[in-house]
From TrEMBL:
Belongs to the peptidase S54 family. This is Peptidase, S54 family. Its EC number is 3.4.21.-. It comes from Granulicatella adiacens ATCC 49175. It is found in: Membrane.
Amino acid sequence: MFKINPWKLERMKRNFNESFSFTYLFLAIQAALFIVMTLAGGSTNGQVLVNFGAKFNPYIIYQHEYYRFLTPIFLHIGLEHILFNSVFLYMIGRQMEYEIGHWRFLVVYLLSGIMGNLASFAFSSSISAGASTALFGLMGAVVYLSRKHGYIRSFRQMGMQYAGLIVINIVLGFINSAVDNYGHLGGLVGGYLVMLAISFRGDRLTKPASRIAGIVAYFVIAFLLFWLGMKR
């Protein structure tokens, strides 16, 4: 019978954790999709965006294509869009993935992105796509960690690093009508709530009741946003 040396297995796990990165994986996915979309007719072409899974309310409402709450996270509209989001994902993604771990990072990134797209679905009828919903989710997670666990130096420093950027981007979002600010705000709230629910490894201060409250709040808000979008 084949047996695995437990020490060797532990070393393999450690090497995997040190070398693997969801941040780099997401960067690769969105770059590959951008290239394919460009070859298919251009990432600024509305039909191409819809074909590749951008948030498009009529298809969500009438054809029940709910995967469109997830797929827009990896799509981008134009070269400037993907370059800006990729640089920012590289910066904040590596930091957050290092601080909270691979799997918590994955949960925060995807669930906050979904929340952002739900908010966009509820309040905007425009076609939308971009990683910014998930990126704002990471910033929402930073806000939570820096406020509730500011006694940890790295969390406090990240809070100071990104606080101004959050405010600037939200203000610019209201000024520029091309920006899906509803998606940004939804992602920000989603990231905050998800981080409250899952916290970070070794957190002994967050009570189970607070974690449950974060989970419940996330799903209640998500349901309300979905309901509002369907009513539109």
